[in-house]
Amino acid sequence: MSAPEESLDLARVAGRAAADKLAEEVIALDVSELVVITDVFLVCSGDSERQVSAIVGGIEEALLKERRRKPLRREGERDARWVLLDYGDIVVHVQHAEDRAYYALERLWRDAPVIDLQIDEDRSA
User: Fold this and answer.
1) What would the pLDDT profile of 52-91 be if each residue is shown by its tens digit?
2) Which superkingdom does the taxonomy of this entry point to (predicted)?
3) What's the predicted TM-score (pTM) here?
4) I need a surface site. Which of 14, 19, 38, 65 has the fewest CB within 10 A?
C-alpha cells in the first residue's frame, strides 16, 4: 500500500512551490510503509539561508492558499540551514545544500519509493 492520494497531492503542491522558488533536487519519498508518523518526506535544498527561507515561505503560502493547510510544527527557521515543516501527512525538509549533502536523507530512506511530483509536466503546460 502506498501513501494516500491526499498526501501525494500535498507533496505535489509543496514540490511545485519549492521548484517555483528555485529549490534544487526536489524529491518526495513515500515513507508510509516505513514510519507511522507521516506518509511522505519532501526534501529539497537551497544554496543560501536566504533561499532556504524563501523556499519555506513559498511552500507555506502555497499549501495555505491552495489546500488551506498550515504546518502543525516548524523547526529550524531561525538558522535557516535545515527547516522542517510538519503537516502531519507530509513532512517537508528544506535544507541548505551543504547540510543536505552531509545528512543525505535520500540515502537514509533509500528503501522508500520516489514519488513523481509532476513538476516538469506542470511547467511545460
Assistant:
1) 999 999 999 999 999 999 999 999 999 999 999 999 999 9
2) Bacteria
3) 0.93
4) 65
Contacts of 115 (CB under 8 A, 6+ apart): 3, 8, 11, 28, 29, 30, 40
| R_g of the chain computed on alpha carbons | 13
> Where residue 103 falls among pLDDT bands split at 50, 70, 90?
very high
- Residue pair 30/3 in contact (Cβ under 8 Å)? The answer is yes
Query: What residue type is 80 in one-letter code?
Result: A
Strands of the sheet containing 73-75, edge to edge, are: 73-75, 82-86, 90-96, 40-46, 24-30, 114-115
Residue 24: exposed, middle, or buried by beta-carbon count in 10 A (0-12, 13-18, 19+)? middle
